[in-house]
Design a protein that fits this description.
single chain, about 190 residues, alpha+beta, Double Stranded RNA Binding Domain, two-stranded antiparallel sheet, 7 helices, Znf_C2H2_sf
Length: about 190
């Protein structure tokens, strides 16, 4: 049963050790799955876009994103959202006064939680911690970007050559190679 399997975690010796970092596991299968994090072996591939993942759970999470393509678009700026509630919240940026100001720099926000999240940049409060390596981040979006190091997920793909990237900035810089666009000027 699942309970018996779980109890073994606490009672049994861990017989299988990772060749790369020494982390120990009760089952050979768990050790093998863990080792793929180090080797970047991507056994699980998305049928829709071809991206590879080290664990089936990462692939499943990725595939859910395809199922929830961004179908709600802001009429004013074109930004797209998966949920209508997120679109409605975003639309307030264009129409409402910004009522919440950062107590450190004065930047204004229409939603209190956005202001609170922003203020953590100034205080260096690192609320969001990576479960894999323990590194802390001020914003959940920074943690999600960092986690791609461990998962191997590369959600940004070059439309010219198909090369994949973990971060949008690197993706845009790369695409400029193909277009010969030089967005930065020497001063």
């Amino acid at each position: 049963s699942n309970l018996r399997k779980h109890e073994r975690i606490h009672s049994e010796r861990k017989l299988y050790a990772c060749k790369h970092c020494g982390k120990a596991f009760i089952s050979e299968g768990n050790c093998y799955r863990h080792e793929r994090i180090h080797t970047a072996e991507k056994t699980y591939v998305c049928k829709q876009c071809g991206k590879g993942f080290t664990l089936s759970s990462y692939l499943q999470k990725h595939e859910r994103r395809h199922a929830q393509e961004k179908q709600y678009t802001c009429a004013q700026c074109g930004k797209a959202f998966r949920r209508s509630s997120n679109l409605h919240r975003h639309e307030r940026i264009h129409s409402e006064k910004k009522l919440y100001a950062c107590k450190y720099c004065g930047k204004a926000f229409i939603i209190a939680s956005y202001c609170y999240s922003h203020e953590r940049i100034h205080t260096a409060e690192k609320t969001y911690v990576c479960k894999q390596c323990g590194k802390g981040f001020t914003l959940s979006s920074y943690l999600r970007k960092h986690e791609r190091i461990h998962t191997g997920e590369k959600p940004y793909t070059c439309k010219y050559c198909g090369k994949a990237f973990t971060h949008s900035g690197a993706h845009h810089r790369h695409e400029n190679i193909h277009t010969r666009e030089k967005p930065y000027m020497c001063v």
